[in-house]
Structure formats: C-alpha cells, structure tokens
Amino acid sequence: MSLTVVGSIAFDAVETEGGKRDRLLGGAAVHFSLASSFLAETRIVGPVGDDFGAAEYAVLHDRGVITDDVEHVPGGKTFFWAGRYERDVNIRHTLQTDLNVFETFEPKLSQASRDADVLFLANIQPDLQRAVREQCAGARFSALDTMNLWIDIAHESLVKTIKTVDCLIVNDGEVKQLTDEPNLVRAARAVMELGPKVVVVKQGEYGSAMYTPEGVFGLPAYPTADVVDPTGAGDTFAGGFMGYVAAHADEEISDGLLRRAMAYGTALASFNVEAFGTERMQTLTPDEVNERVQELARVTVFDASPVPLRA
Amino acid sequence: MSLTVVGSIAFDAVETEGGKRDRLLGGAAVHFSLASSFLAETRIVGPVGDDFGAAEYAVLHDRGVITDDVEHVPGGKTFFWAGRYERDVNIRHTLQTDLNVFETFEPKLSQASRDADVLFLANIQPDLQRAVREQCAGARFSALDTMNLWIDIAHESLVKTIKTVDCLIVNDGEVKQLTDEPNLVRAARAVMELGPKVVVVKQGEYGSAMYTPEGVFGLPAYPTADVVDPTGAGDTFAGGFMGYVAAHADEEISDGLLRRAMAYGTALASFNVEAFGTERMQTLTPDEVNERVQELARVTVFDASPVPLRA
Asked: Which of A91, B68, B176, B293 is most buried per CB count within 10 Å?
C-alpha cells in the first residue's frame, strides 16, 4: 500500500495569457504526491530551503502526504523555476531555473520510505535515481521519469537506471529521443528491450499510450476547455497512475489494472491544469475524481460490432 | 446508401527513408473513395488528363467506385504532387505541386451524383465546394475538408461554405487556425457556432476527436510500427467515416453511429499507411478491416469502476 516518491519540491513562477503568479508551490514530487494521495499513503523525499514553511507543509499534510523525508537544508533556498506559457499553452518557455538546495541533493531515505511497496523516481539526475532504486530494492513496482537534458548529457547512466525499473513514464518526444526512433511503437519496444516491462508515454493534450507485454493501450486526454496552468500535469498523471498501483497491492499488476491506473492519472491531471500550481488539487474531492474517470469512459467508448462490408 | 466525393485525382511522387516512387495513383478523392467503397457505393467527381489511363481506372473499378463523373480534359495533364517525408514521417516537405487540369476545374455533377445521400467535399477551393453543395441540396449528411491555404487566402468564402455542411473534418492545426483558438474544445465549439453540428478533428499519429451535440469522443490512432507512406491517411479516414454513415441510411445519425464511423475511418487509415500510395488498399479485405476495428476496441477499453479514494 505504501508509495515513495523522490524528486523536486519547488517554488514556481508562472505567467500565462490569463495571469501571473510569483510563488506557487510546485515541483514534480509535490504534484505527484498530491495526486497519489487520493489513492495511497505517500511519502515524499526531496530537499527544501529555509523559505519552505508551514503553509507549504500544510498543503501536503492536508492531503495526508508524509513529509518525514523532506530534507530541510539550513541556510538554503528551495528549488525555483519560472516559466511562461503562450496563448497556446502547449508552448512553454523556461525563464529561470535556480537549482538551489537541489544542486547538492543526495537522497537519504528513512527505513519507512525504503520499505515502499511502490516507488516513483521523478525527473532527477539518473545516478541519484539509481541510488534511490538501490535503497528501495524490495519495491513491488518501480517507475521513473526523465527529461531531454539527461538523455543528452547522461545517456549511459540513464540507460543503466532504466534497466533497474519496471516502468518508464515519459513524454512522447523523450521516448523517441531516448531510443532515436521516431515511430512510437518501435520506440516503446526499444525501451522494453532495455528492461522495463511497461512503457507509459505522455502525449500532453492528446492523452497517453501504454505498452505492456499484453498489448497497447491508448487513452485520450480528458477534453477540457479551461486550461489555466499546465505545470505539473505530467507529474500529476504519474501520481494517479502509481497511486492506483499502490492502492491495489492485493491484485496482480496486470495490463487491465494498469489501464485503470492510466484513467485515474488522466482524470487527476485534467483537474491539475484547471488552476495555478496546486490550487485545484487542494480543493479536489474523491467524488469528483471518480466522476471524471466515468466521464473519460464515456468519451472513449464505441461499439465495435462488425458490419457487412463490400468486397 | 449512395455517396459522392468531389476532390483531387492525382499522380503523386513520394520519397521516404525507405524508398521512392515517381508515379503513384493519389489525390484526396481517390484515397477517400477506395476507403468508402468498403462501406457504400461511391461516385468520384474530379478532373484527369490524358495521362490517366486504364490502369488507374482499374484500381477504382476493382473497388466498385463509379467513375462516370471523372472528367477527362483532352490535352490536359492530371494533377501532380511530389513530397518527401523525413525519417520521422510526421514531417513532410512538399517538393512540387502542378495543378494542371485542376486549375480550371468546375465540378459538373450528373444527376446520379447530385442524388447522393451523403456528400464529401474534399479539400478544394471553397467556392467550388459551395457550388457542389448547392448541386447536392438533398444530401442527408454532408462534410468538408479544407487546408491552411484556404483558411489564409479565402477565409470568408470558406466560412460561408462551412455554414452549409453538417460536418467539418480537418486537422488539429487547421481547426485551431480557422477559429484562432488554440484550445481544441473551444475551437470545435467555435466551428459548431458557424453551423456544422459535427466537428471531426484528425490528429495524425495521435488519433482523432469528434465533437457532436451529444458530447466529445476521443479515439487513438491504431498503433502501427510500419508506416511506409502516410500520404492520403486523412482522406482514407474521411472515406471510412463518411462511408459508414452512407452505409447506415436506415439509422438516425446519432453520436453512437458517428463513433462507429470514426472507428472504421481509423482502421482503414491505418492500412493505407502500410504501403505506398493506394497499394495496400488494393489488396485489403473486408475481414481485415472488421478485425482491425475489433483490435481498436481492445486498444481503447478500460474498466472505469469507481474505487475507494482517500479524502
């Protein structure tokens, strides 16, 4: 039942056509854990500085996220990211990245975090991800995310780390870049040859795809007219996905279970984008999440009965 | 039951990483009608030159396509398009476009074509599309495709034409450009405000989405590792979609029927890309098509039963 996530805890400054916020709670591990908290008890591991205070902890604690392994670096400043989205929110410009306490981060997991049933390695340097994976050797299901930077400058280490996890959860462009294969089916197969049995590909506004030994699953994004701030959508998706796996510890991790996990990830991500930062996730209710999964089923269903065709 | 398509009949020269062909049968109306021929009797309307011979007619006739309204322009040459696809076949470069007989094309429909139950206006100049629409005033269901060129240089005429049809079938980028709205849900709504009750958005490798008064439908593309030549995939999709509507004349055109139509369009398009030009469609069998629709259902299905969530 227990889930550990290791990754960034951040303050974000976000500009969109509709508004501007200077200091939003953010970071991959934060977005992930707020989503996963709807499904499973979640332990978050990552560094923060002196500027990370009671208000920020409260957002996590209100969702039951266990922050024992949040490492406070005295005298340090929390990771900071600033970005601007164009009117087409699919186009994002990074304006500033200050690693701050993240620069010297060496994940130290408590025994409780090491005992995790399910482990998610959010996007950090792949050597660090591998060190965490080694500390959580007993995890029943492990996954990692990464980014173009590591694919470029730490390819060998990244591949070594990918070999140690059950599942890769990355963007469309990243899996193609990682494998140097522009066709998604082939790219996913190439990842599976490295080791992971499951490849989950995030496709932004188009949805997501999953490759398992049992087949391929494709799921559109939940169609929403109101995208306020897409920051953290991918991490929220991963949180719902991994949380679902953690919540169903009594079930075999089948293709069917992972499909349901994808639906919960998709539903949760669709809420995350409806407001700035973590604002929407803070007010979200379980009923809203389940209702959106049902709506997603209505969005995707069709009758495939064969019809007479002309030879 | 009868379906009329008006649009280009062409010779294509296509270069890919895997090969090069100098003279393939192509054109929107050809790709469309080969697909729709699996579902409904199809009449193709478009001009050809002296270079369009028995071999080309045979491809259409072998699929039962009625070519009575193919207009032979004596002394003319058939529309010619040359393009190159990168290793990532989602990136296409047009190398040459010779309008030839298309330059002076004025669609003249026989009574049989005018009596069409279902009408598809493939991508041609919107004034011409509107003239055809007026000739087929009795069609039970009509749709049109267009392109960025007409959105740019004939916007007013295009909007006037869109108002006259039941359905718009265009690419993702085109519907956003047409409506100046980067969010797909809002873009589709904006089109529906112009008149069409149905908006179908083609998203290439990601699949397609449909907006009707009853809701939104999202369908991934059929996952294929073997894309040889994507030329005509969108027209093939439209052919399957419109063919399905034409084939079910006894049914109300409901959201459910149109979803099934999308599945047939998607399945047919996935075959079209497996070989150059029309080659794969020429050998395709009804059983293969129905089987792929079933596979598409397996690719998209998931269990949306609500689960206990943590408050």
From this structure: B293
